[in-house]
Specification:
One of its GO terms (cellular component) is ATP-binding cassette (ABC) transporter complex. Belongs to the ABC transporter superfamily. This is ATP-binding cassette domain-containing protein. This protein has about 230 residues and is of the alpha/beta class. The protein has one domain: Rossmann fold, CATH 3.40.50.300. The chain contains 7 helices and 10 strands. The strands form 2 sheets. Strands 6-7-8-3-9-10 form a 6-stranded mixed beta sheet, with helices on both faces. A hairpin with a 2-residue loop joins strand 9 and strand 10. The radius of gyration is 18 Å and the shape is globular. The termini are far apart. It binds adenosine-5'-triphosphate.
Length: about 230
């Protein structure tokens, strides 16, 4: 597993303090992040691949500083957004999955084989040449995940990837996330998705309010919500 390390991290947007002293080392295969709206979860998640760099303190992944070595960090850490429409960049499903490898220097056959494997695994093989925007919400989220996995990152950070999905699609995406061999950091409001996780971190007003097993952390979170 990779080691994700937050050291003395503070972050502010303008005058607003969003993260207020985060020290965390995450090296477990499955880490959940929960917290109320606006508590700072997305900001924390985005810091793991350098989409946001801290106002103060450092975030490293396997010793690589996200602020100074963002490009290398992003090779290691893939990010899945809440809304797959923001992540789909190419007209067809297969082209979209292949997109991040276009400048990788990998042989075309290797790219095609990786894309085909992922489409097969996610039940999208029959849609390879279809326009990506015609997929269902759940299929689009699987496509977004495939487009991240094709580059073989060590860590997947997913920020509320099931929030926009209906129950069936949400279960499908959650099921796939739970079986990935890659390390997963999952931000979610669906607490039941975290039952089998190794560790759950509760973010409250920009600080870590609990960091424990899912059962203990979720209990603490419920107490905080009152
Ligand atoms: N780019 C930005 N510019 C200004 N303020 C921001 C920006 N991004 C986030 N914020 C603010 O930072 C605070 C924390 O936001 P963040 O998205 O990290 O919270 P969250 O816990 O993920 O919330 P939610 O559960 O609603 O997604 C919020 O008050 C938000 O409005």
């Amino acid at each position: 597993m990779s080691e994700i390390c937050f050291a003395g991290v503070h972050h502010w947007f303008g005058e607003r303090v969003v993260l207020d002293g985060i020290d965390l080392t995450l090296a477990e295969p499955r880490v959940g992040v929960v917290g109320a709206n606006g508590s700072g979860k997305s900001t924390l998640a985005r810091m793991i691949n350098g989409l946001v760099t801290p106002s103060q303190g450092t975030v490293t992944v396997d010793g690589l500083d996200t602020a100074r070595e963002g490009k290398q960090v992003r090779r290691r850490v893939g990010f899945v957004f809440t809304d797959p429409d923001n992540q789909i960049v190419m007209p067809t499903v297969a082209e979209d999955v292949a997109f991040s490898l276009r400048k990788s220097g990998l042989p075309k056959d290797e790219i095609r084989s990786r894309v085909d494997d992922l489409l097969e695994r996610f039940g999208l093989a029959g849609h390879a040449d279809h326009p990506a925007h015609l997929l269902s919400g759940g299929q689009k989220q699987l496509l977004a995940l495939a487009a991240v996995l094709v580059a073989r990152p060590a860590v997947i950070v997913a920020d509320e990837p099931t929030t926009l999905l209906d129950l069936r699609n949400s279960r499908e995406v959650a099921g796939i996330l739970s079986t990935l061999p890659e390390q997963v950091v999952l931000v979610t409001h669906q607490l039941d998705l975290l039952d089998d996780f190794d560790r759950v971190v509760v973010v409250h007003k920009g600080r870590i309010a609990a960091d424990d097993t899912p059962a203990v952390a979720v209990r603490r979170y419920r107490e905080l919500l009152g």
